[in-house]
Amino acid sequence: MFRSCVACGLTASALLAGCATTRNPTMGTELAGRSLRMETARGEVTILRFRENGRVRADFRGRTLAGRWQAANRRLCFFWTGAPRECWPYRAPFERGRARSVTSDRGIVLRVTML
Fold it and tell me: Sign (positive/negative) of CA torsion 105, 80, 21, 89?
C-alpha cells in the first residue's frame, strides 16, 4: 500500500516538475524552489518540493520520501529509492494555481497544480 501511494506521488511529481528538451534547456527550471500538489482519482494528495540540485521531496499521508528529478526529452522523470523510475510528458511550464491532468508512463493519472 505504501509503495503504491509513493509511486502515485512520484509519478505525479515527475510530470509536474516539467521536462526539458535538448532544444530548450530551461524547461523545468520553473520548478526549482517550488512545490506541486498532486491528487489521485481517489483523492490522495502528495506535495512535491523541488530543489535546483535535482533533488525532490514528496510529502504524503504524514510521510516524507526523498528522491531525484530530471527534465529531459520533453519528459519529467522521478527516481525514488525502492520504486521504479516514472516519467510524465511535459511540453510547457507549469503555472502557479493552474491545474492540469497528467498521465505517467506507468498509466497513473494525476491532477497537478503548482503552488
Answer: positive
Question: Model's pTM, two decimal places?
Answer: 0.75
Reported as a single tens digit per residue, the pLDDT across 97-115 is 999 999 999 999 999 999 9
DSSP codes of every residue in the chain: -HHHHHHHHHHHHHHHH--B-SS-TTTTGGGTT-EEEEE-TT--EEEEEE-TTSEEEEEETTEEEEEEEEEETTEEEEEETTS--EEEE--S---BT-EEEEE-TTS-EEEEEE-
CATH number of domain containing 105: 2.40.128
Number of domains in the chain: 1
What's the rounded Cα separation, in Å, for the pair 39 and 18?
Answer: 17
Q: Which domain holds residue 21?
A: 2-114
